[in-house]
Design goal:
Keywords: ATP-binding, Kinase, Magnesium, Metal-binding, Nucleotide-binding, Pyruvate, Transferase
Number of helices: 36
Oligomer: single chain
Structural class: alpha/beta
Helix content: 40-55%
Number of strands: 33
EC number: 2.7.9.1
Cofactor: Mg(2+)
Strand content: 15-25%
Organism: Candidatus Improbicoccus pseudotrichonymphae
Distance between the termini: 34 Å
Strand order of the largest sheet: 14-24-23-16-17-18-19-15
Largest sheet: 8 strands, mixed
Radius of gyration: 33 Å
Family: Belongs to the PEP-utilizing enzyme family.
Length: 885
Amino acid sequence: MGLFVFSFSEVAKMLKNVPAGDLVRKDELKSLFGGKGYNLAKIFSAKLPVPPGFIVSVKAFEDYHKSKNLSNELMDEIKKYIRELEIDTNRVFNVRNDLYDDEKERRIPLLVSVRSGSKISMPGMLDTILNLGMNDNSANRMYEITNNKKFVMGVYLRFIQMFADVVKKVPKSEFDNCKINSDDFLQEAKKYKDIYKKFVSEDFPDDPYLQIKLAIGAVFASWNSSKAVFYRKMNSISSSLGTAVNIQMMVFGNYGQNSGTGVVFSRNPIHGDKELFGEYLPNAQGEDVVAGHSTPHMISYLNDSCRKIYEELEKYSEILEAEFKDMQDIEFTIENGKLYILQTRSGKRSSQAAIKICVDLIKENKISVREAISRIELSQIEMSIYSSFSPQEVSELTPIANGLSASPGVASGVVVFNTSDAKKEFSAGKNVILVRKETSPEDIEGIQFSSGILTSCGGVTSHAAVIARGMGKCCIVGCSDIEVEEDHFNFKTPDGIRKVKSGDSISLDCCTGNIYLSELKTYFAEPSEEFKTFMSYVDSFSTVKVYANADNKKDLKKSLDFGASGVGLCRTEHMFFGEERIEVMREMILAKGNKKSEAIKKLLSFQKQDFLEMFLEAKGMPVTIRFLDPPLHEFLPKTKEAKLSVMNNLEMKPEEFDVLIESFSEFNPMMGHRGSRLLISYPEIIKMQTEAVITAALEAKERCKDIDIVPEIMIPFINHEKEIEFIVGIIRECADSIILNSEINLDYKIGTMIELPRAALVADKLATYVDFFSFGTNDLTQTTYGISRDDFSKVLKDYRKNNIYKFDPFCRIDEDGVGALIKMAIRIGKKGNKNLKIGVCGEHGGEHHSIRFFESIGVDYVSCSPYRVLSARFSSALARIERKN
């Protein structure tokens, strides 16, 4: 066993000696051998037909990146393992210098594949070379054995092109434009070698050992290619992981009609159904299916054409899924009627499939609920309820084309044909549909900026399909109805006349495969039963409850549909901005005497009705109502017409009106006359809002006698214990009087928002007056940092560029600063009131990393926008699991 190189059998022995529960050691081995090599060793251990080979470990990668070269010591090890591979396979790697050759038994040339293998799968991002070891001598020997010039030429030319592309960056198009004029494989190979020499200014290497040295170095170097760096950044994969290299004996799916290559999933990666799903391409080699150059047959073709091989594939798929306890993405090759498993990995799947597969695996007792939750990514929760088009709108349209549904959902947007245009249109705020003949790994950034992908070639296991599913992008592939002219920035529709140009709008229905020549509106679909089941598992692990920010019955209903446990923030000011109400609000602010009293009565009526609807919809769940927070000038008229309307209603003179309006202006409204300060100046607002809350709750309780309704009143922007003492006194006096006169028992709670550093510092004093704290992390962040969140975007770019901030503290909680204040306020607050309920209702309440922090410091609930409720519920459960682990 070498220092840098290990055979599949050696790694299999290591794995066998690791106890089943030793996850740390297994992770160490996966880090050393990469995910692909680790899995190949397990396939070998399961005695499945895997082509033999060896792994150049991540240690060799690290050594290479220090010296920028493959050491002589490493090359000696590789030669040793090549010799062992020759013995195992009875083939010869270097025909030219074959020391073992027997003229009576002309052995088959040993060709190998050179593939990357990072710990975390990065499909298509790192380089691969097939058929390595090929030269003129090997080509002649292969022809002597096979008597098949077409086969030998295909193997030889593919190798030269792949080697030139990966090792020396010779454009593939140069070889694509080279015409094949004969069946003389040596003559045609010379044409390819001449192209190589033209670009590289040196001869194509014929020595297989030099080939393998250059190939391994190129695969190592591809770790830092722009596409690989972008993919790692997009998926938060550490750049320090590195990659191993897997050297495997080549088997040939292009040997003839009794051969082929394919990709199969042990379950459907689009919908999650338990069935073989995949594609097969007869008489083809390795990368042909995933590259998307051709549109292969569905896997059922193999069932029809060779039932025995199909049944073997079914059996091996079941074995591999049982071994890895997850849906597997399996590459296979059939060489002259013999099936080989080339590699397996956990398959990329749509969000919907990911949820269904986890639920099914739990039911099959293959994984635990804890493990299932840990496997799901946050983005998959967010994308799980994918959108759909209106059936009525679609029924009135005729599709312009139809392709293969590769990743579910719908998308509408402007057509682009390359990454730069995708980025440009996305930056302009548009939804983008990337259209290509076939995608390649170089398109990864364009796919990231796109809402949907459309290709005219390729199948459902092609690069476009796999990447789209993994990124949650809807995708249609193999749409042979259209003719894509990338250089001319258009595609032709099936009639051959109409052209869809760059900038035109189309819509993709990736459930039916239909394409429409218009931009359709999208709607959220109903969650599946599997999704509801999965979220019930999630809730069983959650310790932090998830409430919603909802200002009306509609938002509350949507929040409850998404599983919210109540309302953590009802912003009453949002209830005043309707066309009818804003006029009344302005009169309440500006009028005096009877007019002011009449306006307050009208607002009371509006508010009571709003609160009543919310209490009835919540059915006893907590509803936290924040009293008026913004400064009054935000409600005042801005336009000439609006000012004239209010002035006439109040029967005021223009000069008097202008002076009155000006009196409400503020130099710094964010730090000005708002929240508790406003309520103290206008106690009539406190009384009006208290009456609205309490009378609405009493009526709701009378209507629904079996539901316990306990309204929660929240006071904003508190800074001093005397402020809260004053406001709470008015609320209690008003509320208790109404309840006493109603003869209905009603409990209510009063809380305050902690949005200012001083409030956090005197939390123990504030806590003696209230039942709960809710941290308004938006204001707490900007007052702690001393900068408005609206202005922060101006400096964030420079701060990130200079590595001052790693993230935006207005999006993710700053644990060391703002987080420390929250942690301290909770600790001392509970000294003032041991039964204090703790919540968070700023933007951070729906952010994954922030929720993990809140869970660790004893927050009882977070409140977020309706559409973040699902992801927040998931984050809460995952936070508990991660902390326990």
